[in-house]
Amino acid sequence: MRRAAAISLACLLCVLLLAVWQARSDVRREGLGAGQLAQLSSQLAALQNVAESGLQEKIGALRAAGHLRHLDFRLEDAGSGEVLAQSKAEELPPLAMRPFLWLLNLFARPHAAEESSWLLERADGRSFRVTLTTNPFSEQREAFDDIVGVTGVLVLYSLCLLAALYWAVRHAFAPLRRILDTIGAFERQDYRARLPAMRIREMDVIARALNHLAGALGQIQEERRLLSLKLLTLQEDERSHIARELHDELGQSLTAMRADATYLLRRTAQQPELHAVVAELEQQCARVQQDIRNLLGWLGSPSDATNRGPIPIDELVEALVESWRNRPGQTIEYRLTVDLGGIDIPQALALTLYRMTQEALTNVARHADAKTAAVRLVARPGKGIEWSVCDDGVGIASCNEALQQGNGLAGVRERVWAHGGELEMLDRGPTGAAPGLCLLACFPWPEADRASAAPSLRNDELAAT
């Protein structure tokens, strides 16, 4: 309001300056009209007393007289009635003035023209008639000019005031753009944005409230990330425990069963019926043992690498992709691109990348009906780590529905979010052409203190079977 008052005062001063300029013009016009009347009176007085030789010169001077303000002048010879001199006729009103004259005549009809005349007698007996007639059109023209001037001043004042108020309001509400941008960042779950102190009290209250909300939401989000990491750690521990139990219990039992079956095969070589039954039993034991071995491979973690220190994720991913290539009856062509630049990825993130690749390749084999699957793991210094698994299969109809189904995509998204990354699901194959599905995740660049952000992620918790 103070800014608006200052703007109004400035505009008013400008209008006053224009009004002074207009008043100066009016005063000049009044003085010019009075001077014309004084000059006319002087010329008429001289006409009465001038010698006969200078009479025509004086009459010529009266003929040369221009317009008179609000009056029409006419000089006649009193004897013959001949018009010797008269003021110039007024021009027709311009088109813009005619509606004004029509309204003026409609609501305030002007007085009829009044005429005044008298005789000028010379000493030689010759006389002249002088006639002055009021000219209402001249007064109307000046009124029209005044109205146009006042209207122009008001229009200019209004435009200046509106422009100034627009600038003032835009300047006053400029912080709203920052507030909206900050709220947009909160909607994207980026709670690092903060608003500075603002000069407007109400907006400063909103800014402080948003900053407090961002701090609380950021703390809650970080706690959720830590909790998610703990849950993933517990999941890995449970997998390791189950893998150990399967290996220790079923592994020994199945080995003993196969040994017994092999012994029976040798002893029943001369008994075809029993030999066929024992052979089938031995094959069933072999299949169960292979299934258990595959299940242990799925449940198990990169054990030896974890015990030695940083997980060699590039070697593990290569081994994982190679295991899929060597599976019996495999028809999918697997491609692998790994370029980590020799950096050491934290154990938790490395294990997450391994599990995500494992889950994505399983989904490709089970649901995609694809011919090609491409795995890509690239580190961009200072920017982040990019991971992607793309296939040229049937794709998915709806990402939201796929995330709600039990096909592992929700788990992939949870792992990405827990490590502060972003996951995209794109409808394109490994060569960029549809159909297909491409899972693309980008993780922040590993920092030295990032491993200590979650104290629960200890090396012994990540140990594999």
Task: Describe this protein's structure.
By secondary structure, the chain is an alpha+beta fold. It has helices at residues 2-49, 55-63, 98-107, 136-172, 174-187, 201-267, 272-299, 303-308, 313-325, 347-368, 399-404, 409-418, 459-462, and strands at residues 71-77, 83-86, 115-121, 127-134, 333-339, 372-380, 384-391, 422-426, 437-443. Helix content is 59%, strand content 13%. The strands form 2 sheets. Strands 5-6-7-9-8 form a 5-stranded mixed sheet. The protein has a 4-stranded antiparallel sheet with strand order 2-1-4-3. Strand 6 and strand 7 (384-391) form a beta hairpin. Helix 1 (2-49) packs antiparallel against helix 4, helix 6 crosses helix 12 and helix 10 (347-368) packs antiparallel against helix 12. It is rod-shaped.
Task: Summarize the model shown.
The chain is of the alpha+beta class. The protein has 13 helices and 9 strands. The strands form 2 sheets. Strands 5-6-7-9-8 form a 5-stranded mixed sheet.
